[in-house]
Amino acid sequence: MSLFDVRHQPRAMRVLLRAAGAGRMPHAYIFAGPEGVGKEMLADRLARRLLCGAPTDRPLPPELAADFEVDRIPDACGVCEDCRIAAAGTHPDLHLVHRQLNRQHPDAAVRKQQALTLGVEVVRHFLIERACTRPLRGRAKVFIVREAERMGEAAQNALLKTLEEPPADTFIILIVSSLDRMLPTTRSRCQLVRFAALPTVFVHDSLARLRPELGATERAWAARQAEGSLGEALRLCDDGVHALKQSWGRRVADLAAGTAGLAATGLCEPFETDAKALGRLAAQRDPDMSDTDATRSGIRTLLGVLAGFYRDALRAGLGSADDPIHGDQPEVAASILRACGPASCAAALRELAQADFNFARNANLDLAIESLFIRLARLDRA
Ligand SMILES: [Zn+2]
Questions:
Q1: If you placed Cys at 325, which of 53, 85, 294, 308 could pair as Cys (CB 3.0 to 4.6 Å)?
Q2: Ligand 1 centroid, distance to 68 Cα (angstroms)
Q3: pTM surpassing 0.85?
Q4: What is the Å distance from ligand 1's center to 48 Cα?
């Protein structure tokens, strides 16, 4: 286990390694970027480095070596007692703070709540109060806060003082995928470390390693559809979205051609059925998710699939040499393009982005789906 397990995040690595090299580690970080790109992994590796009893020098990987005067950086040794118990997930000074901790809260009323947000009670009990205690093994305490953007104003305000003046041996890492949901006061007290989308080829190769049972077609599609998020690519595969997207490809081609046997509004029902099925899978992973949020996450997945078809058509229309997302269904983009032309593809993408925005803000589900399909069916023909 090493800091360098995290790949293809040179910008984030540079920020961390410069501070570590200068011996001036900030005590509060925001790790911000898309989901599934290595934020939590890097937080974990940094924690192990901070807790390790005997850090050892590790050579910098070639892609980073050019930026530093030194060619070795102290990293967790991987063999001392601290490293061993950190790897086992039982290090008493490594605290993972997440919204489901409400179930372990001393107050019965808090335990009963549905953990939709990372509540102020959880933040107080599991972070603020513990930050004031001494490290149990003497070296440091590290708090990794998962989904920190789910802290409401009360929780973020409660945390401000701790972020501003944490005890000397305390490090707090806020993992955030929507930076705009963090209060400016929170942001200003933390060192911001930005993470980028991963290269498609890396996502593709990681899928081959982590899901060897997948066929090559599905793997190639998921790697491109996930837009640089390994976490998202794994979810698409695990939820069987590839099979769903094939039938949606055929429907989109009919819709664009204006030859849909179904009226456009006839697509609402299968769309809702598929979105709810995907939502149920999301809810199985996160029992605290509300039904509405679960369905919404399914809708967003399907909208992403539909957008992929129009994006492929637009790219083909503009003569782009990029690999198509739906490379296994080239006929869909071709038939969209024949019927609509690039300008209408761009209009369709705007409609889909608007629908995504509306669903994220509690639009009436049936109405919004119907109006989306009507708009897509009424695109100007080429
Ligand atoms: Zn160690």
A1: 308
A2: 24
A3: yes
A4: 7
Residue-wise pLDDT for 139-185, tens only, equals 899 999 999 999 999 999 999 999 999 888 999 999 999 999 999 99
Indicate the domain borders of the chain.
Answer: 3-194, 239-377
The Å distance, Cα 268 to ligand 1 centre, comes to 56
Measured in Å, residue 45 CA sits from the centre of ligand 1 at 11
What are residue 97's phi and psi, to 5 degrees? -105, 125
CA 73 to chain centre: 28
Dist. CA 53 → ligand 1 center (Å):
5
From ligand 1's centre to the CA of 193, what distance in Å? 24
Q: Which CATH superfamily is domain 3-194 in?
A: P-loop containing nucleotide triphosphate hydrolases (3.40.50.300)
Calculate how far, in angstroms, residue 11's C-alpha sits from the geometric centre of ligand 1: 26
> With 70 as the cut, is the pLDDT of residue 302 above it?
yes
